[in-house]
């Protein structure tokens, strides 16, 4: 028999490591509650994760097996179970975050193992080690072979074991979406039925984001981050839809498939650059002159910067553990450019708040936005006024999260940071004045980043 060690892959279908173990022998699935690792997660994501483990246990039981849940250091726990059950090998899906790869190395030293590529469609080792930008990555990634979904093992493949140790700390006081494969699959089906064929046209439309939260975009990210749905399964279904569609529908579906390539690139980046979470990816001749003003950082965290789109984004994050991608880009740009606060501060705050936090996606995106990553533009600065005018001109999104502005007309909200102080006081006395001047902050960011790049 083999052991399968579940980590960020809380599902049975399309689980390559599990499927591979099951083709060779009976499998005993194990989840190790690793307190050191779990404390890195925010409260919300930890709770969602534990609900996912609980649901996974139920799924295994419904198949006639069980998920062994043990607490401790994975190397010690897996070595004990390996000996107790006389297992041949421990299979696991390869992870890329340094803290996890270290754990995997210690497990490799303790017991015979088999590591499998599962989190991504294309193994980072099958592509070049470094790409200058996404376009170059995409060309190679697009041509690479993508495997079909892995077989789902049935009950006969499972070791007949019962585990009554419990040990799961399930939080009941946090409002969370349903966890597990079934809930993830339902969400994807909803998106396939009413979303994917218009995805490109609605993905940046903030009115649509409020009217149809699942549909305008997929909202799959919490499930992908916890591995509750396999990436090959997502890819295969989107690809089949793409094959039978034509015209506009096909163009929209293609955009969804394309967006998945950003996720793939981020895993590729982390896999080849373990320092991605702490060091600038791009080397610059000079240091970036960060201001790192604590008061500015606190105002940003609370959603009180006086920039409506930024504040709505931060409040959505604080309330729901999610931000739509458009405001997500804007809040990150505002922090690193207009406020000149180090991207690491923002990324760490996101890590604690997001339900969909994924180290590769979070840190690579922060670096991209901060112009320290793989963006092909040297210094990109999002102007939150122009961005709101383009993507939320009816202020639907802003009014949803910033109640102080609900009685103000949309056009005035767009221009909020440019109004006079007296005007702002009259229109919405409870809402905040801009903490930095729009033009000064923009120009300062330009200067600071050009100096870091040695262009001044
Ligand atoms: C500063 C910043 C931090 C981010 N942190 C995270 C994070 O911790 N976890 C996370 O999953 N995403 C992160 N993203 C990427 C993106 O914002 C989310 O993946 C997306 O908003 C999730 O919503 P969705 O599932 O509805 O996306 P959809 O638009 O429906 O896209 C489908 C899937 O494609 C992938 N995807 C789409 N855009 C991106 C992208 N730019 N980068 C990587 N993957 C992408 C995601 O897996 C997403 O679930 C971050 C973006 C920024 C700018």
Number of strands: 5
Rg (C-alpha, Å): 23 Å
Mass-distribution shape:
globular
CATH-scheme architecture of the largest domain: Orthogonal Bundle
Compute the number of structural domains: 3
Structural class: mainly alpha
The parts where pLDDT drops under 50 for at least 5 residues are none
Range of helix content:
40-55%
Summarize the structure in words.
By secondary structure, this protein is mostly helical. The protein folds into three domains: 117 residues, HUPs (Rossmann fold, 3-Layer(aba) Sandwich); 92 residues, Serine Threonine Protein Phosphatase 5, Tetratricopeptide repeat; 159 residues, Orthogonal Bundle (DNA Cyclobutane Dipyrimidine Photolyase, subunit A, domain 3), CATH 1.10.579. The chain is built from 23 helices and five strands. The chain has a five-stranded parallel β-sheet, with helices on both faces. Helix 1 links the parallel strand 1 and strand 2. It is globular, with a radius of gyration of 23 Å. The N and C termini lie far apart (64 Å). The mean pLDDT is 95. Flavin-adenine dinucleotide (FAD) binds next to helix 11, helix 13, helix 16 and helix 18. The site of flavin-adenine dinucleotide (FAD) has 27 residues, from helix 11, helix 13, helix 16 and helix 18.
């Amino acid at each position: 028999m083999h052991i399968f060690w579940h980590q960020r892959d809380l599902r049975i279908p399309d689980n390559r490591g599990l499927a591979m173990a099951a083709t060779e022998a009976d499998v005993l699935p194990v989840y190790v509650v690793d307190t050191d690792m779990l404390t890195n997660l925010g409260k919300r994501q930890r709770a969602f994760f534990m609900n996912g483990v609980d649901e996974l246990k139920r799924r295994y039981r419904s198949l006639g097996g069980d998920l062994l849940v043990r607490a401790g250091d994975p190397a010690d726990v897996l070595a004990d179970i390996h000996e107790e059950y006389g297992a041949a090998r421990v299979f696991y899906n390869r992870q890329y975050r340094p803290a996890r790869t270290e754990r995997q190395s210690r497990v490799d030293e303790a017991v015979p193992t088999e590591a499998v590529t599962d989190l991504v469609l294309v193994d980072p080792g099958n592509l070049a080690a470094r790409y200058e930008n996404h376009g170059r990555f995409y060309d190679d990634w697009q041509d690479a072979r993508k495997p079909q979904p892995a077989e789902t093992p049935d009950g006969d493949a499972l070791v007949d074991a019962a585990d009554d140790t419990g040990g799961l700390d399930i939080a009941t006081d946090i409002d969370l979406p349903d966890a597990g494969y079934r809930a993830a699959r339902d969400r994807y089906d909803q998106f396939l039925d009413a979303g994917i064929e218009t995805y490109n046209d609605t993905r940046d439309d903030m009115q649509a984001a409020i009217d149809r939260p699942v549909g305008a975009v997929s909202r799959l990210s919490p499930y992908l981050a916890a591995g509750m749905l396999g990436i090959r399964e997502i890819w295969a279904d989107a690809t089949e839809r793409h094959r039978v569609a034509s015209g506009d529908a096909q163009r929209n579906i293609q955009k969804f498939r394309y967006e998945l390539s950003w996720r793939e690139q981020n895993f590729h980046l982390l896999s080849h650059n373990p320092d991605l979470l702490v060091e600038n990816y791009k080397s610059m001749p000079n240091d970036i002159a960060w201001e790192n003003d604590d008061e500015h950082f606190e105002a940003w965290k609370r959603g009180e910067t006086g920039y409506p789109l930024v504040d709505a984004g931060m409040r959505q994050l604080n309330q729901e553990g999610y931000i739509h991608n458009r405001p997500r880009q804007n809040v990150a740009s505002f922090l690193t450019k207009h406020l000149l606060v180090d991207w690491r501060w923002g990324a760490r705050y996101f890590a604690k708040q997001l339900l969909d936090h994924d180290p590769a996606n979070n840190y690579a995106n922060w670096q991209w936005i901060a112009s320290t990553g793989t963006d092909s533009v040297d210094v990109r600065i999002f102007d939150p006024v122009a961005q709101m005018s383009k993507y939320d001109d009816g202020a639907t999104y802003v009014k949803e999260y910033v109640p102080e502005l609900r009685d103000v007309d949309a056009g005035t909200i767009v221009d909020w940071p440019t109004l006079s102080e007296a005007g702002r006081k009259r229109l919405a006395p409870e809402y905040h004045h801009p903490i930095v001047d729009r033009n000064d902050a923009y120009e300062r960011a330009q200067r600071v980043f050009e100096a870091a790049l040695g262009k001044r």
